[in-house]
Amino acid sequence: MDRAMDKYVVRQAIKEREDDEIIGYEIMIQSDNDSLYNASESAVADTISSFLTQNTDIIFKEKLTFLSFPPSLFFRNTPKMFDKEKLVIQIEDSIVVHPLASKIMQRYHREGYRFAINDFQFSPKYFSLLEMADYAKVQIPDKKDQKGMLSLINLVDMLHGFQKYCIVVGINTKEDYDFAKEVGADFLEGNYIESATITKSSKMDYMEGNFFQLVVEVTKDEPDVDMVETIISRDASLSYAILKMVNSAYFAKRKRTSSIRQALVTLGIAQLRQWVYLLSVKDSERNNASDEVLKLSFLRATFASALVERMKTPEITKSEGYMIGMFSTMEYLIDATLEEILNGIPLPDVVKEALIQHEGLGGKLFQLILDYEHADWRKLKAHTAELNIRTNMIAQLYMDCVEEVNGIWEALSSEFERKEEEQEEAEDKSGSSDE
User: Fold this and answer.
1) What pLDDT score was predicted for residue 208?
2) Residue 197 φ/ψ, nearest 5 degrees
3) Following DSSP, what letter does each residue of 242-270 receive, concatenated?
4) Which of 36, 65, 285, 301 has the fewest Cβ atoms within 10 angstroms?
């Protein structure tokens, strides 16, 4: 009996050149082979079809989704299952060389679907399809490859001449990032992007205040509920946000909650752990960059905690895994090194070792998460083996965590927006009464 194909799924952000706006995500689906697209056509189609069927509502819910389809799915009209307003169909070389490619693309194009030609090059086979494409993706060359760098400059200029957007991919270092911006790429994609979208804060005292005490308390294995209530109760904005949250439609409660203690009972500590970080962010501090970092920290924390739960012989607790994920982005939010931030607070040694030295069991867990985000499948398999985690459940686990984080974010964002609307209405009424 053939073993079921292990598959990994990760989304990689695509950002605008001039600001921190994330326009969409490429969904990268990988098998236990070096490349999913090196597998047989039927295996590829089965893997992708199965994944899309189970996760359509999760993937195509947020921003643009860039997704490649093998020929057997592309020519069977599988992309039409998805919202054309959210989907960008990536055209791989396996489709470019197919004799029916142009005809099928024209049909999709007439119906309003968008295309991105992957690994675009100076070649007639690519130019023949460029008219129907909105985006062309070009690989960043090695900085030592002078010919490749000149070619990229010419490609970007040519694509702009055809009024096409150029996405430079493989942005894994600051040098790559700076060069892609310099040559005028419209959008950038790669492992470095999450760092490049971050604007640091200089408010170190913020982390030493009320919010940070709350984070440390709720991530303990057995939090002191009385202490949690005390910390929340002495922060007016935090109290307001939590009460707004538990009274929102997300919890669908018939009876409204008016006390912090009851709010904690409604939430439960596990739910509070996931929400508290976002709840502490004031409206004036929110921007595209911090939003992406906050979502990344929640996703890492949720993913790490879920992975710990699935270790066959765990020597690390779920709360420690959660803290590793949550605090992994702190150096991007505070103008200080991660070592300076973490050494100033009472965190478990396993968390500090994981994030500062990348050592110990926690370090392997953190590296596994980074491997997944960077789509480094070979390293990922090695780390799953070291942590005794089954690889065939990671893809769905990751997407479940994405769905959970997105649900939390949307519910919270709607509450912030409602608060702004209420304030505006109150100001309008106040202005009318003054007149």
Assistant:
1) 37
2) -90, 10
3) HHHHHTSTTT--SSPP-SHHHHHHHHHHH
4) 285
- DSSP characters for 188-201? EESTTHHHHT---B
The rounded distance, in Å, linking the Cα atoms of 244 and 256 is 10
Conformational region of residue 77, where left means phi above 0, alpha means psi within -120 to 50, and beta covers everything else: left
7-196, what's its fold?
TIM Barrel (3.20.20)
- Bridge partner list, 16: 187
Residues contacting residue 350 through CB under 8 Å, at least 6 positions apart: 316, 320, 324, 360, 361, 362
Q: Is-contact 184 160, C-beta < 8 A?
A: yes
- At 34 the pLDDT is 44
Q: What is the DSSP letter of 81?
A: G
For residue 44, give both structure tokens.
Answer: 């590829």
Per-residue pLDDT, 284: 40
**Kind and range of the H or E run holding 64:** strand 64-68
Question: What is the per-residue burial (b if ≥16 Cβ within 10 Å, else e) of 4-13?
Answer: ebbbbbbbbb
CA 280 to chain centre: 20
d(CA 114, CA 183): 24
Query: pLDDT means per 10 residues in the chain (435 residues)?
Result: 50 82 81 46 57 56 81 81 86 85 90 92 81 91 82 90 92 88 91 64 38 76 85 64 68 66 82 64 48 78 92 82 84 73 73 91 93 85 88 85 79 58 63 60
What's the confidence (pLDDT) of residue 367? 94
Using only the alpha carbons of the chain, give its radius of gyration: 24
DSSP 8-class letter at 121: -
- Neighbouring residues of 101: CB distance < 8 A, sequence distance ≥ 6: 91, 95, 129
Give the CA angle between residues 141, 144, 149 to the nearest 5°.
Answer: 40
- What lies within 8 Å, CB to CB, of 195 at 6+ separation is 332
Say how many C-beta atoms besides its own lie within 10 A of residue 134's C-beta.
15
d(CA 395, CA 387): 16
Query: CA 342, 346, 347, 348: dihedral to nearest 10 degrees?
Result: 130
Q: What angle do the packed helices 225-233 and 210-218 form, to 10 degrees?
A: 160
Of the candidates 327, 365, 333, 371, the one whose C-alpha atom is nearest the C-alpha of residue 348 is: 327
Q: CA-to-CA distance for 202 and 277, rounded, in angstroms?
A: 18
Give me the residue spans of the domains in the chain: 7-196, 204-394
Question: Do the beta carbons of residue 200 and residue 334 sit within 8 Å?
Answer: yes
pLDDT at 200: 46
